[in-house]
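debug: dumping io for the single-chain case to check the tokenizer round-trip. Nothing else runs in this session.
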Amino acid sequence: MYKIARACFRSISAVAPSNSAVGGGDRTVRAESLVTSPDYFTLLGAKPQLGRAYTAQDAVPGFLEPVVISNGFWQRNYGSDPKIIGRKMRLDSDLYTIVGVMPPGFRHPGRTLNTDVDVWIATGFNGLPFPVPAVRSQRMIPAAIARLKPGLTVAQAQARLDAYIPQLSREYLTEYPAAATWALRFR
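debug: decoded output
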């Protein structure tokens, strides 16, 4: 899949929405979180208003320690504290470090669970909590966002991906049975 993806896209980020219990402010709150690949913000060309975004240079197996929060979450839960960078924040039972705050107008361009994203978390998708060593059939990512290669249309990329699916099922019969449902659609 990597080979065909590289033929269609300049960059790709997996995205998986989640709802998390967040502590570290004045109280524990529920927050819309988005698990992404480490290069998510680079792909979007998005820069925080405060601090930095996590990048591919932060990549390690499993979840990365740095997280980025939304402007709204920063205001509601941290009183717009300009010294927020470097503070620890607990998501569910794991401890993370806030490295950036996105500007007020920044929104995730895809679907989320219920509301705008409050917290962005990066993972390498090949370390705990994902199986180690990685098992292809157990690493299904619900969605991805991508930037097309220059000069390639959406229709051309869709046709390339559609043509590749039968080959993928043949190559990895035990991981991806022929009866598996594939959903590789552009919006």
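debug: round-trip ok. Helices lie at 2-8, 40-44, 71-78, 154-171.
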